[in-house]
Design a protein that fits this description.
By secondary structure, the protein is mainly alpha-helical. It is about 35% helix and about 0% strand. The chain is built from five helices and no strands.
Length: about 140
């Protein structure tokens, strides 16, 4: 949240494209992760379940057999689902956040140019990022 300018917590990092998404959609101000570990947190977002229910209790594990993700419910409702993965971009510096914002803008502009923006659900989320020196930690473990 502190690197998305729509939240008003940072005067340095500007994210106009993500801000536009927040203005035309739903912005959650009090969304919390069920765990500080990356893969379990992503699996919880994807399934809507706590780690002990979807099976990803640590990095490198897979979702339990038979557990459905968000995409399966959306596909049943007639949505075509795909992924544009920004999760692998480590936002160590504000410049990376600007790069991510630029990529979001490219996706939105392309959808708009193709006449599909109003027919598309865009979910923008991110994981925990690096520690950036907080608590004497640099990388996540």
């Amino acid at each position: 949240m502190d690197t998305v300018s729509a939240y008003g917590l940072n005067d340095i990092c500007k994210t106009p494209n993500i801000d536009k998404l927040a203005q035309r959609g739903v912005r959650f101000d009090r969304a919390f992760t069920p765990t500080a570990i990356c893969s379990p947190a992503r699996a919880s977002f994807f399934t809507g379940l706590y780690p002990n229910h979807h099976g990803v209790t640590g990095n490198g594990l897979s979702i339990n057999q038979g557990v459905r993700g968000l995409n399966s419910y959306l596909e049943e409702a007639g949505y075509a689902c795909g992924w544009e993965g920004f999760q692998e971009i480590a936002a160590r510096y504000y410049g990376h956040c600007t790069l991510i914002d630029d990529m979001v803008g490219r996706v939105v502009d392309t959808l708009d140019r193709l006449g599909q923006l109003d027919n598309t659900i865009i979910i923008y989320t991110a994981d925990h990022g690096d520690c950036l020196g907080a608590h004497k930690l640099i990388e996540k473990t």
